[in-house]
Model the fold of this input.
Amino acid sequence: MITDTQVETANISGHMLRTVDIILALLLIIGAAPVLVFKSLYRKYHHGSAIERVYIHDAKDGKIGLYQFTGEGRCCQWPYLINLLKGDLALLGSDKRYYLEPEQGAGRVSYQQQKNQRISKPGLLSFEQMHHRLGINFEDKAAHLHDAQSNLLSYLMAASRIVLTSIFSAHKANSSAQSIPLFNLQLCNLTMKEMLAEIIIQCQHYQALKLTRHPDTTPSAPGHSIGMLQYAFVNAACLNISVKDPGYRRCLQSSCHKVFADGSGIRIACLWKGYAPKDNLNGTDMFPRLCEQLSKNNLSVFLLGGAPGIAAKTAEKMSHRYPNLAIAGTHHGYLDSLANEQSVIEQINASGASVLLVAMGAPRQEVWLEKHQAHLDVAVGIGVGGLFDFYSEKIIRAPLWVRQIGMEWVCRLAEEPKRMWQRYILGNPLFLYRVLQEIRQQKQHGDPIISAAQTTKDPLLTDSVYANKLEDSGTNKNIQHPNLTNQHSLNAQAKQRCKRNRALARFNIHLKRGLDLLCAALLLVLLLPLLLCVSLLIRLESKGPVLFSQQRAGKHNIPFTMWKFRSMYPDAELRRRALQSANEMQGGVLFKMKQDPRITLVGKVIRKLSIDELPQLWNVICGDMSLVGPRPALESEVKQYSFHDRRRLAVKPGITCIWQISGRSDIPFDRQVELDVDYIYQQSFFTDVCLLIKTIPAVIFARGAY
Done:
C-alpha cells in the first residue's frame, strides 16, 4: 500500500524531472534553431509542408501526436523536442508504441492502477533502445525505469548511459541471421527466451524418451539412442584460447550442439562483421531464468564445479529464491582421479537431473562434457564458467548500469586483477586484432563465411584446408613454393609484413578514436557541475563570453576552432603587442609570462589546474583533436615554424602529450618539438593510456603551469 508520504515524494520528484525536461528542451531547441529553421524551409520547398505528425500511445492508452519533419533523412525527429517541451514526452521514459488503432484491453490502465503505480510517459530515450543495442532485452526494463525516475541524479545518469551507448553502437547490422560466422565457428543467434525454450523442450523430450527406454539400459549401452546435448558460451577469451587449443576448438565445432555469443567483445566483433546478436547470451544471466523455467516444468538441475561448498551454497540460495526448484545434487569441481570422476558421473545419473551445469572454466568444462557425453544420463549439459561464484556471493557481480555500458569486464578486472589482467588487458586487443584480420581476409577472398585464417597458418584451420590455401597463395613464410626464387620469397614476406603493419596501424587509429570518444564523453558528463560553476565564476568576474574560441592548426596544418574557458580579459590580444618584449618562452615562437597581467583571478586558478582546457573535450568528440597528441598551435606560430618544427603537425593535436607531463611551460619550444616528434613515432594505444594516467599527477601538482 502506497502511503501519502510516498505519493508526496513521488510528486516532488516528478516535478523536478519535468523541470529538467523543460530546461533541456529549451536549450536543445535554442542550440538547434539554425538547423531547425533550415530544415523547415528545405522541407517546405521540396514537400509542400515542413511538419507532419505521427501518433503514438500515451501511458493511459490515449493518443499523442509527435511532430517531425516531412519525409525521411537525418534530423527528421528533431521536432520531438517540441513534444518534450509540451510534456507529451519525457527525456527518459517507456518505449514509443505507434498508434495504428486503439489497443483493446491490453493497453488500458484502470483508475486504481493509476493511483497505485507510477505511470511512465513515452520518452525520447528508453531502456528498450539501450537494451536492444546491447543485447540484454531479457532485463526488466519497467523496474529499471522506475528506479531511474526515482531521483534527479539517477534520471540524468540513466539518460547519459543511453546516449553513450547510442553513440558507440552500430546501426546497420543483420539481426535476423540464424548463425554468425566467427573464428571458423557458427555462433547460434537466439534471444534468451528462445534459448531457454529450446532447453526446456529438449529436457521434456528427453524425459519422454526415458519413459520408453528399458530400465536396464545404460546411457553408454550400444544402441542407446538418447544423447545429451552440449551447449557452450564463448567470449573473447574463449576464442583466443581456441586459436591455440585444437582440442577445445574441435569440441566447439563438432561436439557442442550450439555455441552462443557471450560478452561485449564478441558483440563488437559481430557488429564489425555486419551481424547483430539478438541477445548477449551468457550463463550468469541465463541461470536464474533457467531455474525459474525448470521449477515451472517440474525439471531438475545438477550443479557441478567451483571450490568445495560453492555449488552447495549456490543451490541453497536459488532454492530460497525459487521454492519449487528441484536441485538434483551438487559437487565441487576438483575431480583429481578417474575413480572420483566415475563416482560423480554415477551420482549425476542417479539424481535424475535434466540439466547439468558444469562450472570448471573454459576450456576444461567443455572438454569434460565432451569426454563423458556418452556416459551422462542428462538431457542438456552446459559449461557456465564462474557462475557459481556470483550466485554464492563469493564474487559480487557488476551492477546493471555498468553492464548497460558494456563495461562489466572492468569490474571483473578490479575484482581479480592478478588472474584477469592478461585476459582483458592483453587478450581483448589481441582478439579484436584477430577479428580485423579475419574481416580483411574475407574482403580479399569475397567470402563472408570462411575465416581469415585461410590465408595464414592459423590453428583455427585443419591441416588439409591450410595446405589447400597454401598451394593457392604461396605466401607462408615457413614453406617455400617450388616456383619462387629466394628473392621472390623475401619480397612476398616483406609484403606480408607491410600488410600486417598497415592493418595494425589502422587498428591503432580506430582504437585511439574509440578511447577519445569514450573518455571525452564520460568526462563531459561527470564534470558538468564543475563546468557550470566555472562558467558562472568567469562571468561574475569580468564581462565577455565564458568560452574563448581561437583558430588553431590541426593535422596537416588544417585550421579548426579550438575552445577554452576564457582566462584573460577580453582585450588580451590587443595588450599582447605591448608585452611582447617580456616574453619568457625561449625560441620566440610561443608567448608565455609567469605574471601575465592579462589573466583574470579566476583565470589564474583554472590555468593552474588546467581546467581552462576542459572545453576541448568537445573538440575531441568532434574529431578535431585527440586526448593525446601535440598541443594545437596558433596559425601565426606555425608561420614561424622551421621545416623541422612542422613534423609535429603530422598527427591530430591533443589535450596532453609528453611535454605536458614533463614540465609544461618550463620546457623550451625546441625541446617541446622533439618530445612531440618522439610521441609521433612511438604512439600506440598503451602509450596513450600511460600518458593519460601520468597527466593526472601533472595536473594536480601543476608544475610548469601558468
